[in-house]
Amino acid sequence: MIESLASQRHLDPSRQQASRALDTAVGILVGWRRYSTYAAFRELLSASERHDVPLFKLASALVALAGGGAESETGAGAARLAAEREWGLNYLL
Questions:
Q1: Is the confidence at residue 92, as pLDDT, over 80?
Q2: Three-state helix/strand/coil letters over the chain
């Protein structure tokens, strides 16, 4: 059973990419705000609920904001706007 779960993870690259974005976003908040990983995840989750944006889209938008790039995913405008409102450029300086 464990082998089948591990092999499924490798079959779904979008799930893997979303998980990587969430981990990176948590790491960004840990670095910026000196949070624990739990507190950083809770902040992402709260912001997701507050702005009514899916958690993984918000995490991707935060990663893009921190990297200075534009979010390329369609429908990510609300997530980008939420990330800018929550963590805007003042945290990047």
A1: no
A2: CHHHHHHHHHHCHHHHHHHHHHHHHHHHHHHHHCCCHHHHHHHHHHHHHHHCCCHHHHHHHHHHHHHCCCCCCCCCHHHHHHHHHHHCHHHCC
Confidence of residue 37 (pLDDT cuts 50, 70, 90): very high
Report how far residue 64's alpha carbon sits from residue 44's, in angstroms, rounded to the nearest whole number: 15
Q: Are the C-beta atoms of residues 64 and 42 closer than 8 Å to each other?
A: no
Task: Give phi and psi for 34, each to the nearest 5.
Answer: 60, 35
